[in-house]
Amino acid sequence: KQAAYAELRDVEPFTRCGTRIQVMINAGLRDDMSALAMTGADGVGLFRTEFQFLVSATLPQRERQTRLYRDVLDAAGDKPVIFRTVDIGGDKAVPYLRDEAANMDENPAMGWRALRMALEREGLLKAQARALLEASAGRSLYVMFPMISEPWEFDAAKAVFDEQLDFLKVRKKILPESIRFGAMLEVPSLAEVIDILAPRLDFLSVGTNDLTQFLFAADRANPKLAERYDWLSPSILRFLNRLSNALVGQEVDLGICGEMGGRRLEALALLGLGFRRLSITPAAVGPIKELIRQVDLAEIGDAMNRWLVSPPADMRTELREWAAERGI
Ligand code: PEP
Ligand code: MG
């Protein structure tokens, strides 16, 4: 099987009906970048910039951040890298950034984390913005903001980048060739107002790890709960379907970057719901490419529509049998 996946490295993931699906990888360290060439993925759909902070004993200064981002872009070559601004706090606490506000969190995952923290500790976000802009001089930059709950948070975060961009312009520095801004959808509240934010977004990436935790009110780190709630449950699938429908006709590139996209049956369901970009763990690229090549999008789309209206008692078994009947 491994050899078969290796052979798929240079094969582009077209569905059986001829649609090109973007298959990207999730990464967080310099060393992860070798997986791009190894898997033949289309780029990095989620670069978790907080990893540099988590492995560091002290706050990584701007120059160190710039160096990392430049190395990552060098390693990616022509392939896009979506940098997510720091998602610190919650389960990813760093001692040198602890704050009274974080100490008040009884539920850190729902607490003072990610952009909530970065927008208040403006120096942190400013430094990261400048590092990303400088590292991307003459190239494309993709920036994604985590844990957006309301549209104004996206605007405020983008404003920090705009300000740093102006700073570099005035000083006649080389700027990125293009900049695209996106949001992560991890907090259910954002889905209710996504039509309002969509015109301002270049792309949207659903973080199903956190989304599931908030939708079910179930701690993502607790294995007992992980067994209880299924990614293929009608609640999640209907949620994702409504989101995907809400973005039809909008120029927002919709993708997914949670672990869900790296599982075969889940990926099949996501394709049926209209998702065309999956960012997944590198080990899953081979199996998911293989799956994509066997899928007819209209066929799985029809099946999903039926199942969303009247969900089968066991969606997982239903999907598995549906796939098996078609030799998938
Ligand atoms: C997610 O929440 O689904 C996600 C991709 O981000 P992280 O796992 O880093 O929280
Ligand atoms: Mg998350």
UniProtKB/TrEMBL annotation:
Signal sequence annotation: none
Location in or out of the cell: Cytoplasm
Domain of life the protein comes from: Bacteria
Sequence similarity: Belongs to the PEP-utilizing enzyme family.
Protein name per Swiss-Prot or TrEMBL: phosphoenolpyruvate--protein phosphotransferase
Residues of the full protein shown: 426 to 753 of 756
